[in-house]
Amino acid sequence: MATLFIGQNKVFLPETDSTNSYAITMLKNVNCIEGTVVYTNHQTKGKGQRGNSWMSDSSMNITLSVILKPVFLPSKKAFYLSKITALAIHDVLTDILDNSQFDIKIKWPNDILVNNKKIAGVLIENSVTDDYFNWSVIGIGLNVNQTQFGDLTSATSLINITNKNLVVDEISEKLFVYLEKWYLKLKQNKITEINEAYLKYLLGINNKMKFKHNNIVFNGVVIGVSEQGLLEVLMENNIKRSFDIKEITFII
Question: What is the pLDDT of residue 57?
């Protein structure tokens, strides 16, 4: 595998409640190598953003966590970890899917959509001391060969899109390569490159969309994301407002 460290050390669990939880427990008890990947065939209590769950059929999808140690990164720049992870998943999907047929977007903060349906999600959990990171656990769920999602009509998978059964491990290897690429760019302080790429693929950038805030639906234009990870929206009255993850919902 063409990586220096991400995925070189793997911990496989036939079943676990959450790869993130397992990785965090490991970090608290042993000296884990940076780039260690915890992955499973069956995650029973996967965690998502906003306290949601991430459910996945056994052996059908990518459910893993990557342990990183971004000790070079001030904690106030934590959102860059979300950016590079979203970009890595975007790169993987761009490798697999024809861009002329499929619209692959990053939905703030770090969900990935294909033709407006969610195919991947990210949950990042960190340990910080004195405003710098000790470690970060990057949890990634990517729907690969699962065909049914119950009542969740907003979800999709690679098999539903391509009509092909894909090899989960091969896609995971691609993910490790691209995540390492973007992580090294972050380590090299290539902030402008990361920001430009993230905004290029960001859902709603410079386009009018519907949102909901405090149960009120309104139109706005996404104009950017702050360094702290707040979504910047130009309201209909031409006033810019910034929203945290729990304060605003996209209506797609």
Answer: 64
Of 146, 126, 133, the residue nearest 55 (C-alpha): 146
Q: Per-residue pLDDT for 49 more than 60?
A: no
Q: Which amino acid is at 223?
A: I
Distance between CA atoms of residues 140 and 138, nearest Å: 6
**Identity at 148, one-letter amino acid code:** Q
224 bridge partner residues:
232
E strands, the chain, where? Answer: 10-13, 37-40, 46-47, 53-54, 62-68, 104-107, 111-114, 117-129, 132-142, 208-213, 216-225, 231-235, 240-243, 249-251
Query: Cα–Cα distance between 229 and 225 in angstroms, integer?
Result: 6
CA distance 246 to 15: 30
Residue 44 and residue 95: Cα distance in Å, rounded?
A: 29
> Residue 54's pLDDT is what?
47
pLDDT at 151: 83
**DSSP conformational letter for 32:** P
The structure's pTM equals 0.94
Instruction: Measure the N-to-C terminal CA separation of the chain; round to a whole number of Å.
Output: 38
In terms of C-beta density within 10 A (0-12 exposed, 13-18 middle, 19 or more buried), how is residue 102 classed?
middle
**Beta-carbon count within 10 A of 228 CB:** 11
Residue type, 205: I
Instruction: Say if residue 14 is preceded by a cis peptide, omega within 30 of 0.
Output: no
Runs of H (alpha helix) within 119-167:
158-162
